[in-house]
Design goal:
The chain has 699 residues and is α+β, with helices and mostly antiparallel strands. It has 22 helices and 21 strands. The strands form four sheets. It has an eight-stranded mixed β-sheet, covered by helices on one side. Strands 11-12-13-14-15-16 form a six-stranded mixed β-sheet, with helices on one face. The two termini are 32 Å apart.
Length: 699
């Protein structure tokens, strides 16, 4: 493995370390040749003449004459720090804004969609900004998200304290340095994604929260969703986000340029302090240290638990992550439950009619504020209508027979929305969002029985290759299509060849070339990164690195016992459980919880609040000690030896359960023929340790 690839693999292993280094974008992979326009990959290709022609056409047709976003993104600037790099407490680089400075050269990159390049430059804002004179401030460019500070009678209310302790701490230090030191009196989590709560320990001490000195306010359901959304399929999500977030891609015009709602995600320590106040009503008013706020609950929009905030004294509306500088994901490519575009539109509409008629500024957890009532209403309507049109038009098409396998080639935004930058799908894309709407209402099947139980690609591909006349003919035709700029057609046939012959290096290199050109042409960073990331792995193999480390103690405490038991049921290899039948009572006296865990028909189930009358085994252990097992700090055997756990009954059934457990690692192929031949290291984790939680940054 070459040095560059080793560096990138190291960065990827940082990502895989669960929440010890919570980095949606992985470690910092800077490219020294980025400023000179050199491709970071010896196998990489420059933009083809077809890609250049496409980009030039977009430069002529996109609404570049509208420069209001640039004016607004600079408005209120106070100061930038003297540094571009923020170090993590563990010694790695947590944040490096300087690695993206190639974007500020004032030249067009043919390897980047012109609209995406514009967004990437807008997201280069770095430093402290004033939103409402003397009252509301933001630090932008310190993480994927923004951190906002609202001045109270005696201190600050912090809105969304970033992903990591280190970047949040640096932001607070910058605010106190430039505006005068004030204590933090409250923290507001807008929603349950990691880049909106993970840096809380950088701005407050937990002891101050427990004493009541500092309030932490969040929407109803926050704690459940902050963990649960990313556990059950967490290992698969972790592997898939290598593509969505371009984890292996250096920061380069040919690699990672942006993450649509921010540059990237900080690679620092993620924490979580439980909220002390939950907002349960659809609209709920509260005054904190002289600041009046009304919270608007918006569940099921960008996150399962999310809320906006209105400041009536200041005529300022905080849109959380519901209204930013992009149309968001209805389906996020790393994997998540499909969202409700109609509910999203209606929640924006509620905000528009409740607050939009008087709001003079709108700011959010990402992107930049908009000022003036007309401008606020314009952007709110644009995004409301974008989600509404997506939902309604896709269902209109579906009701006319357009299927999930066609809609991404049929659905188009109206021209009136295309002309508005706030309607562009940087985080989402029209293609994958339109498919998501059909999936939400009709599921994945297109109603053709041939696609209901299809062959796996590795089984169907050899049939296609044989019928197409073998690899030589496919390679020749694929190269011809590539040279003609017909990249999707070329992808269609060469992808089949790669599945049929995963060790065919020439085929993988050609598919990588095809993916690269498609990636260059895409407006959405998630789609761009997915194609470029796949190209990288086809050329160099998938990353090798350490298995994920244990989750941080904050996330373990937030994981309910029921969620842990559910995750164990997913980790269980049902083939190893054939013939097993038992019931285990689990009791955690320190919090009064009781469960029955039952093995039956090769399925592991649990029920809370019950105890089996004739269990095979009863396990008694305090939840505080169980958390140490979940976090990998101890084992049941050690707790038994220390007298901190008690087994009453047949110990054999516990050993049976243990024997069925599987430890997941994100080391499976996403593209065929990319896995190294070296045997994977056997996981050293205790099988009852909680699975690593996937990263939900940016959703």
């Amino acid at each position: 493995m070459n040095t560059k690839l080793s560096q990138i693999t190291l960065a990827a292993s940082l990502l895989c370390s669960g929440f010890a280094f919570a980095a949606g974008g992985g470690g910092v992979v800077a490219d020294p040749g980025a400023m000179q326009g050199k491709h970071f990959d010896a196998k990489g290709k420059m933009p083809s003449s077809y890609t250049v022609e496409l980009q030039n056409g977009l430069r002529k047709t996109l609404p570049f004459e509208d420069k209001r976003d640039f004016e607004e993104s600079k408005r209120g600037f106070i100061a930038a720090p003297t540094y571009k790099t923020i170090m993590a407490d563990a010694g790695n680089v947590a944040w490096d804004m300087g690695s993206y400075e190639f974007l500020l050269q004032g030249k067009d990159f043919d390897s980047v969609h012109p609209s995406l390049q514009r967004q990437a430059i807008l997201n280069m804002g770095y430093g402290l900004y004033e939103v409402v004179p003397g009252k509301i401030y933001q630090v932008r460019g310190f993480d994927l998200s923004n951190i906002s500070f609202v001045k109270t009678n005696t201190g600050w209310i912090v809105f969304d304290p970033l992903t990591s302790k280190e970047t949040a701490r640096a932001a607070l230090e910058l605010v106190n340095e430039k505006l005068g030191k004030r204590p933090v009196v409250a923290v507001v989590y807008s929603h349950s994604h990691a880049d909106h709560f993970g840096g809380v320990r950088g701005v407050v001490e937990e002891a101050d929260v427990k004493s009541g000195k500092v309030k932490i306010i969040a929407p109803a359901g926050f704690m459940d969703h902050a963990v649960a959304e990313n556990v059950y399929a967490g290992n698969a999500m972790t592997r898939r986000l290598y593509f969505q977030y371009g984890v292996l891609l250096p920061r380069s015009p040919f690699g990672h340029v942006d993450q649509s709602i921010g540059k990237n995600t900080a690679a620092g320590n993620l924490g979580l302090i439980e909220p002390t106040i939950l907002i349960n009503e659809p609209f709920e008013k509260m005054t904190v240290d002289g600041v009046e706020m009304e919270f608007q609950n918006t569940p099921g929009t960008e996150a399962p638990a999310e809320m906006n905030t209105y400041f009536p004294q200041l005529k300022a509306f905080w849109a959380a992550e519901n209204i930013t500088g992009t149309i968001h994901n209805i389906y996020t490519l790393r994997g998540a439950l499909v969202r409700d575009a109609l509910a999203w539109s209606k929640n924006i509409n509620n905000a528009l009619y409740r607050y939009g008629n008087e709001a003079q500024v709108m700011f959010a957890s990402h992107s930049w504020p908009r000022w003036g009532n007309d401008r606020v209403q314009e952007v709110m309507r644009t995004q409301r209508d974008s989600y509404a049109h997506l939902n309604n038009e896709v269902l209109h098409l579906a009701n006319n027979g357009v299927t999930i396998n066609e809609v991404h080639n049929v659905y188009k935004q109206p021209e009136s929305l295309k002309k508005q930058w706030a309607a562009h799908s940087y985080h989402g894309s029209e293609e994958h969002n339109s498919r998501a709407v059909i999936n939400r209402y009709l599921g994945y099947w297109d109603a053709n029985p041939a696609t209901l139980i299809p062959l796996s690609p590795k089984d169907s591909a050899p049939l296609y290759v044989e019928m197409m006349g073998g690899s030589t003919k496919i390679m020749a035709k694929g190269k011809q299509l590539y040279q003609q700029g017909k990249y999707r057609e070329a992808m269609e046939i060469v992808n089949k060849l790669v599945y049929a012959e995963p060790n065919n290096t020439a085929a993988k290199d050609l598919l990588a070339d095809i993916f690269e050109q498609i990636g260059y042409q895409k407006e959405s960073p998630s789609v761009r990164n997915s194609f470029l990331g796949a190209a990288y792995e086809l050329r160099h193999g998938m990353p090798a690195g350490a298995s994920p480390k244990t989750n941080g103690p904050d996330m373990i405490r937030a994981m309910t016992t029921e969620l842990w038991l559910n995750a164990l049921a997913i980790s269980m290899d049902s083939k190893k459980a054939v013939g097993m039948k038992f019931a285990i009572n689990l009791s955690t006296p320190d919090n009064g919880e009781k469960f029955v865990v039952e093995m039956s028909n090769s399925a592991l189930t649990n029920i809370k609040g019950y105890q089996d009358r004739n269990p095979n085994l009863t396990i008694t252990v305090n939840r505080s000690d169980l958390e140490k097992v979940m976090g990998g700090q101890t084992t049941f055997e050690k707790l038994l030896a220390e007298g901190k756990a008690k087994f009453d009954g047949d110990r054999k059934v516990f050993d049976q359960l243990r024997s069925t457990m599987t430890t997941f690692t994100p080391d499976f192929e996403l593209m065929p023929g990319t896995k190294t031949k070296a045997p994977p290291a056997k996981p050293s984790k205790d099988p009852f340790e909680a699975p690593p939680i996937a990263n939900s940054d940016g959703a």
